[in-house]
């Protein structure tokens, strides 16, 4: 899913241009929607970690829902959308930008973006957009009563349901591979849960981690030679290079079970996951609630109400995997 919105357009700037007067340059560019801060309008700063279909869909959902709630960029609100392109220094500069512009509220899309905002301010409300485990990421004191200036929406995945699906589609499964980035708290949290579930099913687990997207082709090829299937949690680094992962695993006829819908669309076999656009809509609703006076310290972390079974039928045919009719009947089919 591509991100298209009539009022929000990405342009590409160097990291130095994110803050007027910032010193030095950065080879990693950040993309942003630059808009003036009209003091008569509420200023909403949105930081997206990087560009990939899952995060783009979340951002789209936030913008659309804010418009539904009456916050339209340039008319009834100033929406400053910044894309850090996965670079830590960009995240810090974007957070400082929002603070210097006296933002009324900020939104962090993905765990590292939310952490950068939380490290920068304890005063401006911060809304979490798709944070798997806010507790493990040290963003809140409690899920029911966050206790500070941070609240929002978790995209905690239904790991047990995902493994039920994996076992149904690959009943002969003996060894499963886990692939994720060791630097993302959200991935580590989900992987710990998955390890316990795999052990209870009598599966052998082979885990490999990456430090950057550049590592994925080689690591994925190595993993594909050792396992019968690969499971991937919600991981931003992996998601940015889904096609590289799938190219490597297809060469060995190994199915990949991602945790988000967009990665199935890009070549994964199947998942029981969350609709990323819907998560964005829910995040937009929380943002509007806080703007209108709700206290983030007592506003409980929200969770998506529904999961979605998604099957890539073409991929199943290419991998010679037969999908039971009862599974197909209840699934959204990717052709």
From TrEMBL:
Gene3D superfamilies xref list: 3.40.50.2300
InterPro entries xrefs: ABC_SBP_TrpX-like, ABC_transpt-TYRBP-like, Peripla_BP_I
Matching NCBIfam families: ABC_SBP_TrpX
Coiled coil: none
SUPFAM superfamilies: Periplasmic binding protein-like I
Protein name: ABC transporter substrate-binding protein
PANTHER family in alphabetical order: ABC TRANSPORTER, SUBSTRATE-BINDING LIPOPROTEIN (PTHR35271:SF1), ABC TRANSPORTER, SUBSTRATE-BINDING LIPOPROTEIN-RELATED (PTHR35271)
Organism: Jeotgalibaca porci
């Amino acid at each position: 899913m591509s991100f298209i919105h009539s009022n929000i357009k990405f342009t590409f700037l160097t990291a130095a241009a994110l803050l007027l007067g910032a010193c030095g340059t950065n080879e990693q560019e950040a993309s942003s929607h630059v808009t003036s801060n009209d003091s008569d309008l509420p200023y909403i700063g949105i930081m997206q970690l990087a560009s990939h279909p899952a995060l783009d869909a979340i951002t789209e959902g936030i913008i659309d829902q804010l418009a539904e709630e009456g916050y339209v960029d340039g008319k009834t609100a100033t929406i400053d959308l910044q894309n850090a392109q996965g670079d830590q220094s960009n995240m810090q500069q974007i957070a400082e930008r929002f603070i210097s512009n006296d933002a009324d509220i900020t939104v962090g899309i993905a765990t590292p973006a939310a952490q950068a905002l939380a490290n920068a301010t304890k005063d401006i409300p911060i809304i979490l957009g798709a944070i798997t485990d806010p507790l493990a990421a040290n963003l809140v004191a409690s899920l029911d009563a966050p206790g500070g200036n941070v609240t929002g929406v978790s995209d905690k995945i239904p790991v047990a349901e995902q493994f039920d699906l994996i076992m149904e589609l690959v009943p002969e499964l003996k060894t499963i591979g886990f692939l994720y980035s060791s630097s993302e708290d959200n991935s580590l949290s989900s992987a710990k849960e998955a390890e316990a579930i795999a052990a209870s099913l009598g599966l052998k687990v082979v885990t490999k981690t990456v430090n950057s997207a550049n590592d994925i082709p080689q690591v994925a090829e190595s993993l594909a030679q050792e396992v019968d299937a690969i499971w991937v949690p919600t991981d931003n680094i992996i998601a940015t290079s889904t096609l590289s992962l799938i190219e490597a695993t297809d060469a060995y006829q190994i199915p990949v079970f991602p945790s988000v819908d967009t990665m199935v669309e890009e070549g994964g076999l199947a998942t029981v996951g969350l609709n990323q656009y819907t998560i964005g809509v829910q995040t937009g609703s929380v943002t509007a609630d806080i703007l209108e006076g709700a206290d983030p310290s007592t506003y409980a972390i929200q969770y998506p109400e529904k999961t979605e079974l998604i099957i890539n039928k073409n991929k199943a045919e290419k991998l010679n995997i037969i999908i039971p009719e009862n599974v197909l009947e209840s699934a959204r089919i990717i052709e």
